[in-house]
Amino acid sequence: MGESVREKKARNRSGGSTLGKKGRDLTALALSGELLPPIGRERECAEVLSTLCRMEKGNPLLLGDAGVGKTAVAEGVACLLASGNAPADLRNASVVEIKLSTFIEAKRFSGGEDFVNSLAEEVLSDNRETIQTVLFVDGLHSLFLDERSWSDWFKPYLEQTKFRIIGTTTHKALGRTFERNDVFFRYFSPVFIREFDPETAVEALRGKGALLEAYHAVLIPYDTAATAVELSQRYLPGRRLPEKAIDILDSACVLARNTGEVTREHVRAAVAGL
Prior knowledge:
With 274 residues, this protein is of the alpha/beta class. It has 15 helices and 6 strands. Helix 7 packs parallel to helix 9 (148-158).
């Protein structure tokens, strides 16, 4: 069997490309089972895929409060691409995450403009015929708030129909960015990520629980996940689901490592320790 387009890209990146050295291929992680699609975000993931197929403003901006699961949506898109459950235009596409810290480091040591140019040229080279590489930057607004130079460096590429990037931001940060820069409104399409209701959060936690179980080598019963959501609502009213419940459950798993099963008592102890 011949080498797939995605495998060929991965091999080329291993040779020292900017994407290969500085990026984290979320689609490759999904293929290896290290990422799981988020439960309850099917509509948002489908909207991101649809946006990526647009001719103009084909860059999804995941917009929602901190903690609602914007990053999980980007990971869910990578999972859909890995499984082939995506539009034909995106059949061979991969999502590659570039951390904010990587941009900051690049600007400090080698010049931010050179880094953006190298990154974007690789994306455009991959995307000559069809969309094959999509960048993902969590907290993208931080770049455009930091200095106008970042958006100036990105703009020539954002204006090209074959360049694709997924970003995340909050409503408050978007407002601050617009006061200085209209780049989001000119080149991005918003995808609203709303907080889960408690019932959906419990289901989402069950999906995340599979990764927590594997990492901590523990068992998480259904009622334990429900307790984590319930107590997060009661004691962490200023934070958002599902992140606040995931934080509690993760801490409870640490407490349960010696017993092998996470109980409600472990969850209560985790809340008390916050």
